[in-house]
Structures are given as C-alpha cells and as structure tokens.
Amino acid sequence: MPPALDLPDDIETLKRLLVEERAARRVDQAEIQSLKLQLAYLKRQQYGRSSEQLSEQIAQLELTLEDLEAAATTAAASVDEPTTRDKSSRRPLPAHLPRESLVHEPSLPEGCSCPSCGGVMKALGEDVSEMLEYIPSRFKVIRHVRPKLACARCDKIVQAAAPSRPIARGLAGPGLLAHVLTSKYADHLPLYRQSQIFARSGIDLDRSTLADWVGGAHGLLAPLVESLAEHVLAGTHLHADDTPYPVLAPGTGKTKIARIWTYVRDERNWGSEVPPAVLFRYTLDRKGIHPRTHLSQFTGALHADGYAGFDRLFETGRIREFACWAHARRKFFDLFEATQSPIAKEALDRIGALYGIESETRGKPPDERRAVRQARAGPLLDDLRIWLTSITRQLSKKSDAAAAIRYTLSRWDALCRYRDDGRAELDNNAAERALRTIALGRKNHLFAGADTGGERAAGIYSLIGTAKLNDIDPQAYLHCVLERIAEYRIDRIDELLPWNAAGQLSPPRLAA
Predict the structure, then answer these.
(1) Which of the chain's ends, N or C, has fewer CB atoms near its CB within 10 Å?
(2) Using an 8 Å Cβ cutoff, are 303 and 322 in contact?
(3) Residues 6 or more apart from 154 whose CB is under 8 A from it?
(4) What is the Cα–Cα distance from 381 to 267, expressed in whole angstroms?
(5) How many alpha carbons lie under 13 Å from residue 222 in its C-beta half-sphere?
(6) Distance CA 307, CA 375 (A)
(7) Domain ranges in the chain?
(8) Distance from CA of residue 172 to its chain's centroid?
(9) What is the CA radius of gyration of the chain?
C-alpha cells in the first residue's frame, strides 16, 4: 500500500498548500511548454524544411465535415469515369545550343529497292528527335604572337603593344577567372575542390594559385563594388540584415565569428524600373558602429529586424525604421509547431490575412498600394492589436505565447508603418533571401582563411548577387567585366554594372 500522506488537519493550511501546489504546477507546465518550443525549433533548424507554412496534416484538420463529405462524394462519382492522363509538356531545348545532326539511313538492298517487292523507294519525310548531350569543359592556351618588323634603312623596330591581362603577368584569362569566381561564390565550390577538378583535366593549379587569382580579381573589381554601393545607398528604401561568418584566427587553430552585412535595394514590388542590387559588407564583429558606418550616407526607410545595433540609426529621424512581420510571425509559428496553441494559430491566421492583401498589390504603383493597405489592412491591424492586448492579460508573463505577443506589441509602430507607405514592404525577406547564398557557402567553405578572405567574399558576392537579381548569368557577366576593367576609365566604371553591361555579354544568358 502507498504510504499515507502526511497532511495537516488545519483547513486553512491545506488550502494554502493546495494553492502553492497549483502555482508550482503552472510554473512546471510553463517550463515544459518552453522546452517543447525550444526542442521544436531546434528540430526544425536541423531537420525541418525552411518554409514556415503549416504542415499538410494540420491544414487537413482544418477542413470542415462538409468539405470532407463533398470531397468523398466527388471521388465516388468519378470512380467509374475513365481517367485521361495529361501528357506533360516537355520544354524545347534552348535554341542557342549548337546542333549536330546524325542521319540514320534505313538498311536497304543494293539500288535502294523496296525490301518487300523490289520497287523504287522515294523520300516521304523524316522524323527528328533531339537528345541533350554534355561535352566536358575544356581548356585552351591562347598564344599572343607579336611579330617584330625592322626597317632595312634605319633599323627602326616596330611591334604591337602587348595586350593587357586581368592580372599582371598572370596565366589566367578573363574566362578562367570568371569561372573560378563563379564556382566559389555562386556554386559554393571551395578552391581545393576546384583544384581537384582541374587536375582531372590534366591542369595542375594549386589552391594557393587560385587564391592569388581570387585576390587579384577582387582588386580589379573593388572600384566596381564601390560604384554598386553608391547605387544601393541612393535608394529611399533598403533591407538590412547580417549573418555570422567564421574566419580562421591566426595562431590559435580556431575560428572567430565575424559578420557579413547585406543591404538590398529592390523596388520592383512597387513597379519601379530601377535595377535591383545587393551590397555585402564584411566586419570583424557585430557592433552597432558598423551599420552606422555603412549607412552614413543613406537617408530613407530601413527594413530590419529587432537588432539593438540598428537603434542608433533611428534616433535622428534621418532613417525611419520599418519592422519585419516575418520575424513577428515566426515566433507564433514556432509556438504553434511545438504546442498546437490555439492562440498561436489565431495569430498566424490574422497575420496571414495581411500577407494575402500584399500578394494582391505586388507590382502596383505606390499610391495604389498605400490606398489598399489603409482601406483593408488598417482595420485588420487595429483588430489584431486589440486582440493581442486582451489575450496577454489572460496569460502568465512567463509563457511563450506572452513573450511572442510582447515582442509584437513592443515593435507595433514600426510594424504598422508600412501601411502608410506604398514603397515599403511587409517584411524584411529581401535581405534574408540575399543572405542565403552566404549560408550555403559557409556550409561548404566552413571558414575564411583570413579577414582579407571575408572582404573579398563580400565584394564578389555583391556583384554575383546583383547579377542574379537582374536575371544575368554571373559567369558571363564577370567574364565581360574582367575582359575590360583593367583598362577601363575609372570615371565611367558604372558602365560595367550588371544592368549596363548586360548588352555586351556574349552570348547573353539568364541566371540559373
């Protein structure tokens, strides 16, 4: 038999013990929910998909009984109906690819007579099918020959000037340099892997040699990166974010955590024809002085997350803060995934309605976007604030739902500022998309060898990212630029920005 509980006989003492027990249980339950939330978040980070859409299972539970019955009726009615399978339309192979025709003649007796009756055969037509084939990349050596001519009378020697090279006395041509840069910073192939790939073609290129080429190319491209920075900072609306970037710490055998910041100018959502562009900057740490330095010449609206280092930017009013609804939504999403909280689900539905309005106004002029937001999103925002305020009074201050609500309400003015500005966005996803390439490269490269490597990465990522935003093949673009930039006039360097150089690409190709 279980031991008898040693309880006091006094009623008031028993009541006090019961209240304390209930309070302790609530604390335990809150801690359990918090741990579940952390576990779900870590699982999603490690194993889950990056999308924050609700799972199909959860969405299925939201179907009403009438929907299920209607679906079952429709399925039953279609059981006896013959089903026709739609043939998937295959895309034609690109027209710019070279074609090689192989003619397969039928086997006929001598004299091209009919194998059945011996009659004379005549042409009836032909069937043509195409197959895509791959020819491994190949190297070639370009020999620059400069004949010397001497005058028979005065012995004057005439010879053409030596053509310039992207890197002085370097062996790499502009096409090879563009290939190395694109492989490293767009396809995320570390230099040692590229060295191994080249070796399979019989080309011995050490990783140190490739690193020297990257450094030399970055030196050439640096003025172009600064011209790109002027274009980005000349906008009125920017998206900003940062991400960790491991860098080898000399003499320690360990890595230090530096940062790469991104600043995105993309005005296409409000119908602007200004070319989009992205700028990356490398810093040794995450101090707030860095974004203040980067944006010292910028005036306008800044979309950013809740990082405290941005706060000093907004003190003078020169830069206006626009908070990110995706960050606010993410807190409720993680809570719902972990606990199936109805409060979190309600918040997700309300925020989803705001995104639904945005999808309808994408690409429209700023005045139209502002009018639609004020008329339709404005009432939804007012109702959402009232609901969040009333709900938070019913929750424990230590609960995760209360924490998510507090985060949203603490940034409410900045979250709602987009409603009255047709050029602003609902979230900061443009910056987060730009940082994905850094995250992919970080997984493959593991770390940069030195701070100079981080600075090179930021500059070349800027050019490649901007080329992709403008639907330009980054390798073709870099090839075009590296052919010209060594002798290009510095006061006309903006002519080599991706959207200006696009017409000079040979052949012009879209970015993958």
Answers:
(1) N
(2) yes
(3) none
(4) 24
(5) 9
(6) 31
(7) 325-427
(8) 30
(9) 32
pLDDT of 8 strictly over 60: yes
Alpha-carbon gap, residue 300 to 322, rounded angstroms = 10
Tell me the H-state helices in 163-288: 174-185, 191-200, 207-233
Cα separation of 402 and 404, whole Å? 5
- pTM, 2 dp: 0.77
Q: Is the CB of residue 244 less than 8 Å from the CB of residue 257?
A: yes
Tokens (6 digits) for 255 = 């890595």
In angstroms, rounded to a whole number, what is the distance separating the alpha carbons of residues 385 and 398? 20
The one-letter amino acid code at 356 reads G
Asked if 211 and 468 touch (Cβ cutoff 8 Å), the reply is no
Res. 51 pLDDT band, cuts 50 70 90? low
Q: Is 427 exposed, middle or buried (0-12, 13-18, 19+ CB in 10 A)?
A: buried
**What is the per-residue pLDDT for 419?**
95
Terminal-residue alpha carbon distance, the chain: 73
For 45, 242, 431, 478, the CA distances from 50, given in Å and listed in that order, are 8, 18, 16, 31
Tokens of 427: 């979230």
Alpha-carbon distance 410 to 407, whole Å? Answer: 5
DSSP character string of 11-39: HHHHHHHHHHHHHHHHHHHHHHHHHHHHH
Give me the DSSP letters along 394-424: TS-TTSHHHHHHHHHHHTHHHHHGGGG-TTS
Under a CB-based contact definition with an 8 Å cutoff, are residues 213 and 167 in contact? yes
pLDDT value at residue 102? 85
Using alpha carbons, list the distances in angstroms from residue 376 to 365, 383, 388: 17, 12, 19
Contact yes or no for 310/287 (Cβ under 8 A):
no
- What is the per-residue pLDDT for 120? 78
